[in-house]
Amino acid sequence: KQEVTQIPAALSVPEGENLVLNCSFTDSAIYNLQWFRQDPGKGLTSLLLIQSSQREQTSGRLNASLDKSSGRSTLYIAASQPGDSATYLCAVNTGGFKTIFGAGTRLFVKA
Amino acid sequence: NAGVTQTPKFRVLKTGQSMTLLCAQDMNHEYMYWYRQDPGMGLRLIHYSVGEGTTAKGEVPDGYNVSRLKKQNFLLGLESAAPSQTSVYFCASSYGLGQPQHFGDGTRLSIL
Questions:
Q1: Alpha helices in B1-112 (DSSP H)
Q2: Is the distance from CB of B24 to CB of B72 less than 8 angstroms?
Q3: Less CB within 10 Å around the terminal CB: N or C of chain A?
Q4: b/e map of A13-46 (b: 16 or more CB within 10 Å)?
Q5: Cβ B98–A41 below 8 Å, yes or no?
Q6: B40 → closest Cβ in A34, A100, A103
Q7: How does pLDDT run across A40-93, given as a tens digit for each residue?
Q8: Could you count the other beta carbons within 10 Å of the beta carbon of residue B39?
Q9: Quick check: A102 and B4 CB within 8 A?
Q10: Chain A closest-CA separation from residue B89 CA (Å)
Q11: What percent of chain B is predicted at pLDDT more than 70?
């Protein structure tokens, strides 16, 4: 059974710091992996989607990597800003409609 | 630029009452989903639909029913609400399998 884990559950960093959020999954047979951002009281906003054949995706200050063999993905945020404060979730699609979500990492960037 | 719209945003019910949550999308997506989000847990799929007139069970379907009479709308019903159904409910839609899912802002449901 696929399980998705995000550690730590919460993270606080000073503004300007580069940071890495981690996502691990137990079964390497995935279709794709997606990173989302969730602001308080809001829905999920898709940030990056990595297909199983890809190693990384970049969008602005965000870079997501995927290592299927080790069951890991990382989301790198460069030069963090207070506006980056949110909960970040990763989700693994195992094929069809089976998308397994992690519980998220709550990020707080201090000004 | 509405995207996915959920109504209502908040609701408090008494045990045993029924209600329907509405999801509407204006992106002409074929696929629509209903999830629930509980503290400390990832989102879990309740039901989904691959097109107008079709529905299927997800991971946690018990106690819920759905309907997709129009392509743009996906309704989630609770026939007899239970306290265990207190949660935040999210609707999402996507163009196809493996495509990014677009989420609504959620419905916060409390059942007393």
A1: none
A2: yes
A3: N
A4: beeeeebebbbbbeeeebebbbbbbbeeeebbeb
A5: no
A6: A103
A7: 988 899 999 999 999 999 999 999 999 999 999 999 999 999 999 999 999 999
A8: 7
A9: no
A10: 10
A11: 99
The Cα diameter of chain A in Å comes to 42
Interface check for B98 against chain A (CB to CB < 8 A): the answer is yes
CA distance B31 to B28: 9
Q: Provide the β-strand partners of residue A91.
A: A34, A101
How far away is chain B from the Cα of A34, in angstroms, using its nearest Cα? Answer: 8
Q: Is the dihedral of CA B41, B46, B50, B51 positive or negative?
A: negative
CA separation for the pair A59, A62 (Å, rounded): 5
* Burial of residue B112, with CB atoms counted within 10 A of its CB: 0-12 exposed, 13-18 middle, 19 or more buried: exposed
Q: Which residue, chain included where needed, has tokens 């606080």? A: A12
* CA-closest candidate to residue B106, choices B7, B3, B38, B2: B7
| Backbone dihedral angles phi then psi of residue A62, each to the nearest 5 degrees | -105, 140
Instruction: Look at B104 and A43 and tell me if their CB atoms are within 8 Å.
Output: yes
Q: Is B90 on the interface with A (CB under 8 A)?
A: yes
